[in-house]
Amino acid sequence: MAALINVPPRAKRGDIIEIKTLMSHIMETGYRRTADGAVVPRDILTSFSCRYNGDEIFRADLFPAVAANPFISFFTVATESGTFEFEWIGDRGFSATAKAAITVE
Amino acid sequence: MRRLRIIIVSMLLLAVIPVRAADVPQGERRSGTSFMAPQTRAMQDDDTANPGMLWALEGEELWNKKVGTGDKACADCHGDAQASMKGVAARYPAFDRELGRPVDLEQRINLERARHQQASPLAYESRDLLALTAFIARQSRGMPITAGSDEELTPFIAKGRELFMQRQGQLNLSCANCHDDNWDRRLAGSAITQAQATGYPLYRLEWQTLGSLQRRLRGCIFGVRAQPYAFGAPELVELELYLMTRAAGMTMEAPAVRP
User: What CATH fold (topology level) applies to the domain A3-28+42-104?
Assistant: First the structure.
């Protein structure tokens, strides 16, 4: 599954930076039915988290009302150079990860 | 008394006879983007917020993947898409000499698969076909639309225009009734827009997915309660061709975002 990550490649120490993520997912609610009445089983992302050099700095729970291809953006303080690790977990054993590096001067 | 009757009759006539406006003048042409809320526009303009880019990303993978009994990838013949596909989507639908008729970008991809990769065709609106189309169309982003310049297309453009002007369905509306005559108004709170097909395939928030121009056309035809043409029908390609010709010179925005 494709994911788009937007982390500024470099920042000054103490800067507030915006991190933007876009994950490819259908987010099937589980409330819809097919033409012959069968329920379309739920298939959503249930959790998203972000680690900054190993420390969790952001976490979100997702629910059926979230639109397809969830776009999540949040802010953090650039403290040191390193990596952001992102993880999405969902129904049917869905799991995806992504990484982005930042240089802090 | 008689004068009053004449006035009433003429007022009734005026109310009944539709005022047929001409095509949208060149200078007044507007992309669907200009009708959107600033938030939706920001989403379209930011490549890491535009969900259409997810398809373009997947399309890039498919471009380099060997398929079919020909065991060839698109890249094996066309190389780097950034160079070879630049401006290609801007001139589609284009005339195919072997078939003797115009084909749109989706059909071109499937023809290439059949002729050069000996691979099975991808279904309309399938993830892979949309991904490849989005990836190719993206290479024309920012370029002017040049569709319809091939002389062999002239009769097909005329047919597309005829279909655009043709009233149809239980509501007895033509495309032109809304998109030429009333594009500056709103329908159920939504902007009607001019039907300038500058951004296809595009991510529609209502669809929650990327979709082709044919899907959009079928949706409109269903909306006037007519029987939509099947995906790939010559009529839909002619309509696509007319719309792209009508938008010639406007900027390609694929993959765009629409509400």
Answer: Immunoglobulin-like (2.60.40)
